[in-house]
């Protein structure tokens, strides 16, 4: 600049050649505004002046100005030489407008610059970016004196566009002619090797890298990391990682993300800490990967520290990072914190919505998840297979059939209805909503089934007490060559025990270990205990529990207690109840069952002892909750609830049902109530059990003759079960109740469970 002012003082005696040199100096020194002023003040300009300033604009990413200058150059009739074209093609690639390279190609061809190595290479790059590999090859073949850069351009073009074999061919031709590859050539070749899984070839090339002393280059290093992690050789990858320079964030990011994605979350986290100690600043991708690892570990403390760091480096608004943070809080059970981040985030994308929806489903808040899903649709965001399967899971848990069906039709409209993950969720949704036939329909027309599909269908049939159907599916599964797993057998054995298929159940239990090598787990054992127990083999069931090689769970003793009640075995029942109460002293259901059993055996002193003990323990009941879906809305009823706006009608209907059932000879089973009150009051208390409130509501809100579907969070009690059977006959409607164990399908006075539940 000092020089320039000196020149100006002396009366601007520079010619065009010298001014161009000065212009170039300003550009190189990144003094772009000075360069612009000089350019504007030049009395005459030639092509070199234009190209110099175009390069200046490109350097400082002012692409539009660069293109504008090119138009001016062309308009003012200056010479279009090879430098003009290489510069402008570079601009187009940088601004992701490589498609426009076409327009220039015609011009280049006309002027005969096509065979020039510089122009040719720039054209190859442009065509490579837009995926026109054939055109790139044509240009390559036409270049007269190819240099190393031209060859490398072609190798990279093939590698980037997944023409891996061609990339290796060009590479070996290049070496035959005697050109020495550079770091970009090697990076392209490694990419091709990974694509072809040609790991032996890659090993040879790694040798060349060492000979050419490129092993410390960052491009080559990252390509090698990719190569060794893809070939499963994490040890070699680590060795390469230790050798390459680690000032740049890219290799760190790469390794952290690989560890996070391959279930080595702890390693990923510790590498992140090491990177921090090396004073390398993480970028959004590093944070996203490290946070993913943190979410998998469920480590909230580390998550919070990361959150602080994110704020410090100013990446809190980055969508990748904020999505990953939401996931961390959701997976650590702090869904409110996740929601706060979600609400604050200004650039949410579909991943953000999905993360929140999955988070809510995961923590059991199906209503929130579904609400968010509707909001997502209103905002015209695209649902993915993960969204669909999550909201279907939410509908299943609420047994919200209308909603589930709407989601199904939406999946059809958006072409997700043929996706295996979505179809599996549909099977589960339909069977949990009581529509086992629709579940089967989805299963039958599926494109591609996996183990999950078969398991879902088997456990669907099992839940509905359709054991024979479940076993047919199990047979089909094996005929088609699918391998049953632990969950498959949980389905098969529960199908046998829910339907009383005694012999088959025992055979499958033996064959599971003998033929399939699957160790029985607690779920398998509890199916077997229930199967033996309900068939009257109570002592065999008790013996099975004793033989279990690990600590038996409450579940097993509950199954046995249930069986003892059916078969009136007070002694074994008392023992089972004792075991349950040792593990869960305040379990209300067990107290009720036990008292019921004593009452049936007319051992009143035991009944009152239980009542005393409950009082002493100050037990609080888990509130019975039932719900029905009506016009896409879910209505909840808790026991004794009087808050529903339709309460008057509901009470009227209950009154009427009470009268009709009595007239049909129904005697309420007052033992199902443990409170020390008059029998009259006990009867009243039974009539406000949540499923009856839900039933009364559904009776007047749904079209007469249609099926009534009720979901209950606990096991249905003896008295409600008996009442439901009778009511289904009196009002001539199908009533389906899903309790915590299974479906009860009441029809014309009979229940599908055959009174075993
Ligand atoms: Zn009840
Ligand atoms: Zn039943």
TrEMBL record:
PROSITE patterns with a match to the protein in the record: PPR
Domain DYW: 665-757
GO biological processes: RNA modification
Keyword Repeat attributed: yes
Classification via InterPro entries: DYW_dom, E_motif, PPR_At4g14850-like_plant, PPR_rpt, TPR-like_helical_dom_sf
PANTHER family, per database record: DYW DOMAIN-CONTAINING PROTEIN, PENTATRICOPEPTIDE REPEAT-CONTAINING PROTEIN
Name listed for the protein in its UniProt record: Pentatricopeptide repeat-containing protein At5g13230, mitochondrial isoform X1
This protein's encoding gene: LOC110418360
